[in-house]
Write a structure and sequence with these properties.
Helices cover 30% and strands 27% of the residues. The protein is built from seven helices and 14 strands. Helix 3 links the parallel strand 3 and strand 4. The termini are far apart.
């Protein structure tokens, strides 16, 4: 696939370019998924597969052609200590978010690409190749499913109570304790960054995460959610920012909200 370098572009245009790259990486992932593969374990004991590495190589090559002057922080390179010096503008890549979902063969794994400017995600895409559903956002947000593109936006909080999303593979007690302070009427599980997208398209209202994550896990979903009218904040309501080189791009707790943060109960 030829990717044309972009000099001046809107965030929606960039999100579409990222989406094309994510689809190509997703196709490579699915070839590995169909034949099956074993996992190895990185130093932090998180799993990595042939699919992670193959997808990341494709994405890095395409991004180098698209935005040659923008540094890219990618999960598997970072795991090997290969991290470029970043400025106010850089890209975060998780080539296969939800490796546990991939290994469990439940389809809830994604390709994540996001552009960060001044600490905030400005354009991004989340592609789930096993179910062929893509979410993207820049100035606006949209979903592409079965070839049909639909604009998405968050919903107003239902008067009957909130729908909360919880991690399928990484449940944690602190997230449960946080939810106890809000009028939650329904809880649903989902894998990978699809949780942000479910909030973005208005089928859920919040997603708290107090367990460990990295910036590349979160940025693309954050970009889609922000474009759809939502936000990602620290649990106390403070800004959740990117480019935390002092922590090795490790995040603290966050909450994804569909609308403004409601008052605690």
């Amino acid at each position: 696939m030829k990717v044309r370098p972009i000099v001046t572009q809107s965030n929606d245009t960039l999100a579409r370019e990222f989406a094309a790259i994510a689809r190509e990486a997703g196709a490579a992932i699915m070839k590995v998924y169909e034949k099956g593969c074993a996992a190895r374990f990185k130093v932090d004991r998180s799993p990595v597969t042939e699919a992670d590495e193959l997808a990341e190589a494709i994405i890095l090559e395409r991004l180098a052609a698209l935005l040659p002057d923008v540094p890219v922080v990618a999960e598997e390179c970072a795991a090997k200590g290969v991290i470029p010096k970043i400025g106010s503008r850089f890209i975060l890549v998780d080539p296969l978010d939800g490796t546990k979902e991939f290994l469990n063969r439940n389809g809830e794994f994604t390709v994540n690409i996001a552009l960060i400017e001044n600490g905030m995600p400005m354009a991004g895409c989340v592609y789930a190749p096993a179910i062929d559903v893509l979410y993207a956002g820049g100035e606006t947000a949209w979903r592409v499913e079965r070839g049909v593109e639909t604009k998405i936006e968050t919903r107003r909080y239902p008067t009957g109570g909130l729908t909360a999303l919880c991690s399928r593979s990484h449940p944690d007690a602190k997230s449960e304790a946080f939810l106890a302070h809000y009028p939650v009427a329904d809880r649903r599980e989902a894998g990978s960054s699809l949780k942000f997208c479910r909030v973005a398209e208005g089928v859920a209202d919040l997603y708290p995460r107090f367990g460990p994550t990295m910036e590349w896990d979160v940025a693309a979903g954050h970009a889609v959610l922000a474009a759809a009218g939502g936000q990602v904040l620290m649990p106390d309501g403070e800004t959740f920012a990117y480019g935390k080189t002092s922590t090795g791009f490790r995040n603290e707790a966050f909450v994804a909200w569909g609308q403004d943060k409601p008052a605690r109960g």
